[in-house]
Amino acid sequence: MVIRETVNFFHFSAKRSAILKTYTALNLKGLCEIRWVERHDAIQISKQLIVPIFKALEEIETDGDSVTLSKARSLLNNILSLDYIVTLIVMDFFLGYTLNLSKLLQSENIDMVMCIQCVESVTEMFKEIRNSAEGRFHQLFLEATRLCRELEVTLVMPRKRNLFKIPSDIPAEKHIEFYYHVSIFLPFVDQRIQSLESRFTKHKVTLKSLSGILPSFVVKQRSTDLKELIKLYASDLTSSDSAVMAELELWRAKWLKVVPSLFPKTAVQSLAECERGIFPNIHKLLSIFCVIPTSTACVERSFSSMKRIKTYLRSRMSEDRLNGLALLNVHRDVLVSSLKFWKNLLLALLEGYDLKYR
After folding, report:
1. Which letter does DSSP use for residue 125 in this model?
2. Contact 86, 184 (CB under 8 A)
3. What is the pTM of this model?
4. What is the pLDDT of residues 78-95, one digit of tens each?
5. Is residue 324 within 8 Å of 345, Cβ to Cβ?
6. Cα three-residue angle 191-192-194, rounded to 5 degrees
7. How far apart, in Å, are the Cα atoms of 162 and each of 159, 179, 187, 206?
């Protein structure tokens, strides 16, 4: 909330933005409600610019109207609180581990195997941090102490300390550090671990069955181990169980002759290496594996494209023309060099017009 209000305070006034630019060349980023990667950037930049923001607010507090002065004073009180500084540093620390994971989960060519592997590696790292929480947080608290010294913030226990019992074996100089270690650091790391496990653990059953047909897994197990997979997707397969089992044997024999370093890494790559005429059922299972979504990022891109294409000035656009423009916008990375393609696309778009618009 403090970050959002600070960003809005500077973005909604050119004068206030100019004052902030006198202290830093970086720009503040808002907390995007949809794209979580933007939230990573917003928190990291807010931590980097906490000193320039403090200086800019101090300058604004001495010159401006009563509403601006009141808002600047309120933001200063929030930013100069030890709770905010410690929380910001802790969030920045953990988001550094999940930044690349968030970007990977929003990519187009990731499958469930890579997704689960990356999530498990991040989860294991968080568990290691949890086991060594005292030493990890001590380094973060030292960073918060240095920042408080630069901002002239006094290190004092919050008023709610009477409701918080500190063990008697904790030295007096460690009371503040222990309080924030228990009240902020431990709940945050526990919430990160629980969130990752609860969101992705339910996919492990599907992953365990489908990953068995990937080359790197199929060469390590027997075809009989995949009987549960055949029963699970029996309605999608076109052959009998015995024929599918024979097909799995052929699929396994094919990859036993290949060097492991040349195995496809993902389900999409495995699908490209699967001859549909020889392995129709394997091709079907790999196709199912490829379309299992890891996130809704690709689906949400279509809504973003539609918002840019069909504006208020294009409200009478026909459906065919909208579909054609949306495809061009979403798949802008596809290089098209054929004039015939453009001719056919133009004709398809023109057919979508009503006669009165021609």
Report:
1. H
2. yes
3. 0.66
4. 888 888 888 889 888 888
5. yes
6. 65
7. 7, 11, 20, 49
